[in-house]
Prior knowledge:
It is a single chain. By secondary structure, the protein is an alpha/beta fold. The protein is 42% helix and 13% strand. It contains 10 helices and 8 strands. The chain has helices at residues 2-34, 114-125, 155-169, 183-194, 210-220, 228-239, 248-255, 274-285, 303-306, 308-323, and strands at residues 71-76, 83-89, 100-104, 129-133, 176-181, 200-204, 260-265, 293-295. It has an 8-stranded mixed sheet, with helices on both faces. Strand 3, helix 2 (114-125) and strand 4 (129-133) form a beta-alpha-beta unit. Helix 1 (2-34) packs across helix 6 (228-239), helix 4 packs parallel to helix 7 and helix 7 packs parallel to helix 8. The radius of gyration is 21 Å and the shape is globular.
Amino acid sequence: MRRKWLIAVILVIVVLVPIGGxxxxxxxxxxxxxxxxxxxxxxxxxxxxxxxxxDLPNDVDASAYLMPxxxxxxxxxxDASITVxxxxxxxxxxxxxxxxxxxxxxxxSCRQAPSVLLPGGILHHAGFxxxxxxxxxxxxxxxxxxxxxxxxxxxxxxxxxxxxxxAEKGIPAERIGLFGVxxxxxxxxIATSSEPQVAAVWEDSSFADxxxxxxxxxxxxxxxxxxxxxxxxxxxxxxxxDVTSMSPxxxxxxxxxxxxxxxxxxxxxxxxxxxxxxxxxxxxxxxNPVEPWIIEGADHVQxxxxxxxxxxxxxxxxxxxxLGA
Length: 325
């Protein structure tokens, strides 16, 4: 009897200890990869940026893109517990009839980022209303848990901003577009697939298939890919987030024939340029003829600073065509 009891204890140890270690490693991976940097931006100088005063990389002259007249606003997310911090810049002429674009930053960034302020300024000076927002757990928006959910929660913040433009500014849905970079681009795609009235979306440097991106992120941080299931399980256990429940690749298929612009840089060291081709292929597969604009030599979300005039011309033309002048 005692021998059987001892064998049972040994078996429990042999089985449970490795499982416990595997799950503990998964928790480390999840905590490491999803924790949001509270400093909001990789460039400390950017934290002082406002629409009326900001600098741009690559010696790009910001003076033509400054937006001196703006409002600081608090917007309800589609999740009642989240308040979205944003800057609203009305069009200089007839803002009540002008189209609008919501602009969203990437991971560990915020609306102070040059990659938000530059396209915001481009569109504003082309006659658009622009709304530059912070996603939850970023910038001045509500800190929910200090983690990002790869767009699977944040998309409701974007749609809250979209709702606000309709309800508070009286802008028709067919005159509102979305713009996003990196994580913001992925989030915009998910938001567009979830709201059939979103009129047009511009994505810069998104990932595509979530599982492929997850494997790449593990490798980039020096973790073996076999830890992915443990990290996903612990994510659901610790925060309730299922980061694989929505994917930009699937979102593009759900968007269908709606206007979509895809751009990416060939020298992107953060998210592979292959993602742009994957998203475009998914769009074409559902009858949406999209050809990605691949910017030679551009690193992650740097195309707009490398070929600014060309970027501005394409950005304006896309949204004028699909939202109206």
